[in-house]
Write a structure and sequence with these properties.
By secondary structure, this protein is of the alpha/beta class. The chain contains 19 helices and 22 strands. It has 3 domains: 159 residues, Nucleotidyltransferase, domain 5; 176 residues, ATPase, nucleotide binding domain (Nucleotidyltransferase, domain 5), CATH 3.30.420; 195 residues, Carbamoyltransferase, C-terminal domain (DHBP synthase, Alpha-Beta Complex). The strands form 5 sheets. The protein has an 8-stranded mixed beta sheet, sandwiched between helices. Helix 7 crosses helix 13 and helix 15 runs parallel beside helix 18.
Length: 565
């Protein structure tokens, strides 16, 4: 009989996940419940939510898998105030103090120290103490290596066997990346990439130097790079800072010296060119690494995870490599996906499970019509019930309205996929500016994304190679003749991050089909339902609070249309 395995991650973007056999029962990140973006506290609410969604009690859990046991993470478990202070400073909630520079330098030093028998023992002691407080006892605990969690999430989610697995992030358990091979349901590690030679920290430094929040605003760096005057590779000094040697990354400078060298370059170049050079360096170096690994192993299918692969323009370049036959990025590619990766790896080691019956990622809480209606009535807004809510929403969107949309189980991961979304016409720069300035309250240069009927993709996008990009993990270029129709959802270079909507999401697909009848195009602007800096909304109360905060007119939840009063 299959056992329930709980995955836990208690660091940056903490969360929990629950699997049984080849099925994901629940997965959620703590930020959605505490309402603090990228929460770092122990994920007690996430654990409780997973149990509640599965109808289980702590006693029903036989195995708990936890990620990461390096020196820095263990220290944070022993002294939680250290990670809380770093969180507040990083998110600009607290001004840096006199010792901030020293603390920052120390942070980069200690994160390079890998796990040991002592740190593993101390980590297990700390975690078990937290779990005991929640009623857990008598379970088996597995500590799973940070990059093994990333690799497991990519490999076992992808459905590729055999395949090559590449993980690239900032740092975890002393490493910044790994190369592995999946064959016959088992992974073999082929190469480790040291934390000193981190491509992720390189890009983190760039983000920080541009006065943005590291571990959060790297997407803004990617976006603003589009506004730079292109610099030829031969004249890009960043390309000389990192070299690729087979399956290895070699950095010319250690982490702290790298920061200093990048700071010198920023003094010489405008910010957008600085961003362009960094983005180009990331694309060139990671593509070279991927190409080397594929050639050396003879593999043609590639599974990717780690925070660096949240960069959709990089992913587009990898997907288009001639060596790549198929490419899959795990939908929750950053550290927020570690809990599920830990559960996957434990399930593989204990039960031999290496693929999952997981056609979607809607593993978060859902709410009944009665719960939704109770929340609406308490809000004091006007409302009406509709038998065909997709048609109602499509009509509002076609008329030029912005519609807040909440349906079913919440998405797992950073992308809004038609469950907690803000929807609007894709061809309006007026709506794009309104969303940026009044509703989303975010920078003007960061484009919104399109969701489209899967059959529209070939008509709208270049290089549509048959990949069903259902989870917004890949970048695409929009055909020149279709860019006017997509002005609200493309970057200045014509790129976009689309979601292909299939029969797996029938209600959202019906909305797009109705919109196509009304406008001629089955494409909608789809951005996450939140104000910039807040997590994605989870509950009806969250949605109604955001409606009030933003002053938008329309919210659709379940079968109900809410009109703000």
């Amino acid at each position: 009989m299959s056992e329930h395995i709980l995955g836990v991650w208690d660091g940056h973007d903490s969360g929990a996940a629950l699997v049984k056999g080849d099925t994901v029962l629940a997965a959620i990140n703590e930020e959605r419940l505490t309402r603090r973006k990228l929460e770092i506290k122990f994920p007690e609410r996430s654990i409780q939510a997973c149990l509640r969604m599965a109808g289980l009690a702590p006693a029903d859990i036989t195995t708990i898998a936890v990620s990461t046991a390096d020196f820095a993470k263990t220290l944070a478990r022993l002294v939680p105030s250290t990670k809380e202070e770093y969180y507040l400073i990083r998110r600009r909630k607290k001004a840096p103090g006199l010792l901030s520079t020293i603390k920052k330098r120390a942070k980069y030093r200690i994160t390079e120290i890998g796990p040991s028998a002592l740190t593993r023992a101390l980590s297990m002691r700390c975690i078990n103490a937290e779990l005991a407080r929640l009623g857990f006892s008598g379970h088996r605990m597995l500590l799973v290596d940070h990059h093994l969690c990333h690799a497991a999430s990519a490999a076992y989610w992808s459905g590729f066997d055999p395949c090559l697995i590449l993980t690239v992030d900032g740092i975890g358990d002393g490493l910044s990346g790994t190369v592995s091979r999946l064959e016959n349901g088992r992974m073999i590690r082929l190469a480790d990439i040291s934390g000193r030679d981190s491509l992720g920290i390189f890009f983190e430094h760039v983000t920080n130097l541009m006065n943005m929040r590291e571990l959060e605003d790297e997407g803004k760096v990617m976006a603003i790079a589009n506004y730079a005057y292109p610099i030829p590779d031969a004249e890009n000094p960043m390309l000389d800072l990192i070299t690729i040697d087979g399956m290895q990354v070699r950095s010319r400078h250690a982490t702290l010296r790298m920061y200093s060298e990048l700071k010198k370059l920023l003094w010489k170049y405008p910010s957008e060119q600085f961003a362009y050079m960094a983005q180009r360096t990331l694309e060139v170096k990671v593509c070279e690494l991927a190409r080397n690994c594929l050639r050396q192993t003879g593999m043609r299918r590639l599974a990717l995870a780690g925070g660096v692969f949240s960069n959709i323009k990089l992913n587009m370049q990898i997907r288009l490599l001639p060596e790549v036959e198929a490419c899959c990025v795990f939908p929750h590619m950053g550290d927020g996906g570690l809990a599920l990766g830990a559960a996957f790896q434990a399930n593989n080691e204990l039960n031999g499970v290496s693929s999952y019956n997981a056609p979607d990622v809607y593993w978060g809480p859902s709410y009944t019509d009665d719960e939704i209606l109770d929340a609406i009535r308490q809000s004091g807004n006007s409302w009406s019930r509709h038998d065909d809510i997709a048609q109602t929403a499509a009509s509002l969107i076609a008329e030029g309205n912005i519609v807040f949309w909440v349906q079913g189980g919440m998405e797992y991961g950073p992308r809004a996929l038609g469950r907690r979304s803000i929807l609007a016409l894709p061809n309006s720069t007026r709506i794009k500016d309104l969303l940026n300035l009044r509703l989303k309250m975010r920078v003007w240069y960061q484009p919104f994304c399109p969701s489209m009927l899967v059959e529209e993709a070939a008509e709208v996008l270049e290089n549509n190679d048959g990949l069903i990009n259902r989870f917004m993990t890949m970048g695409y270029m929009v055909k020149q003749e279709r860019r006017r129709d997509m002005e609200g959802v493309i970057g200045i270079d014509g790129s976009c991050r689309p979601q292909f909507v299939t029969d797996n999401e029938p209600l959202f697909r019906r909305l797009l089909q109705e919109l196509k009848k009304l406008t001629g195009t089955g494409v909608v602007l789809n951005t996450s339902f939140n104000v910039h800096g807040d997590p994605l909304v989870c509950s009806p109360q969250d949605a109604l609070g955001t409606l009030k905060k933003t002053g938008n007119d329309y919210l659709v939840m379940g079968n109900y249309l809410v009109k703000r009063v």
